[in-house]
Amino acid sequence: MKNILVTGAAGFVGMHTAARLLERGDHVVGIDNLNDYYSVQLKRDRLAQLTAHSGFRFEKLALEDRSGMAELFAANKFDSVIHLAAQAGVRYSLTNPHAYVDANLVGFVNVLECCRHQQVAHLTYASSSSVYGANRKIPFSVEDRVDHPVSLYAATKKANELMAHTYAHLYRLPMTGLRFFTVYGPWGRPDMAPFIFTGKILAGEPIDVFNEGRQARDFTYIDDIVEGVVRTMDKIAEPDPAWSSDDPNPATSRAPYRIYNIGNNKPVPLEHFIALIEKETGRTATKNLLPAQPGDVPMTYADVDALTEAVGFKPSTSIEDGMKRFVAWYRDYYKV
User: Which of 177, 179, 217, 272 is the 20 to 30 Å CA partner of 154?
Assistant: First the structure.
């Protein structure tokens, strides 16, 4: 049994990850600041799924609270840390940039410093497919350079990867970054397309379809994301003996550092995605076709070969099965 910290435990991925760890017998401390970026009630309802378990303890705490974070780490002696808390959302970063600096940069430094001073055995942290930014080579590979983010959110996630590498290099702290690709499923985020489209279609309201629907996303079901998170947490990052400074692989290092994609490896056109919601709800969507939004990219597509080679796992839940489960959960949760 391990003593594991999960940051962002009231979040979508955080709740599911904590639940999985509890199921296998680990002790989990969860933190979250319960901010109002989206429904606080939804976050509290997620926490209620965890707090009934004797192995779980929750503390309300912001990543930016340096002294609070230091006290938490000193008091608990974590074996491993799964860092999932962040200010999320590409479009929100256009109007609220400081929220991303506070949570994703200042907060991440605090996590790194706490891991360093308490000599945590392994930090596994959430990055994002958004780091691929202006890249057009598909599928996106962890061996590709990611030097051209197109949103502040993406820039903070790329910065997290650089910061993690620095600590792995300087202090030999094992660091594993996971680039998530459009996570969806029960208890999902209300700011994302599956949630927004399902709610509006059930309510008979029009949906805003950006770039006039000419885009595709590598939708990845939550159970597959959690499987990848837990497996990579258990495989402590090690230096890559084949790494060369003459031809540097961005996903590995001479330091104990790794980057992996976790995606379904199958982009879904937006039109097909909307059609699946129509099928599961029994309703027809009214579409408000709009231009592309700043910071959006036309397609995401994960190359997961590195993940499969490292931990023997490849996401496989189909969008048809995943959306059927999500819409069923949505209708039950909101009684619609």
Answer: 272
Whole-angstrom distance, CA of residue 30 vs CA of residue 52:
13
Q: Any bridge partners for residue 119, and if so which?
A: none
Q: Which of 38, 125, 153, 301 is catalytic?
A: 153
Q: Which of 146, 180, 111, 157 is nearest to 251 (CA)?
A: 146
Cβ 306 vs Cβ 261: under 8 Å: yes
List, as one string, the DSSP characters of 232-252: HHHS-----TT--TTS--TT-
Annotation marks residue 171 as catalytic: no
Residues 53-92 have pLDDT tens digits of 999 999 999 999 999 999 999 999 999 999 999 999 888 8
Strands of 231-325, DSSP E: 257-262, 268-269, 287-289
| pTM for the structure as a whole | 0.96
- List the single range of 92-101, 104-113, 313-322 with lowest mean pLDDT: 92-101
Residue 129 structure tokens: 């497919």
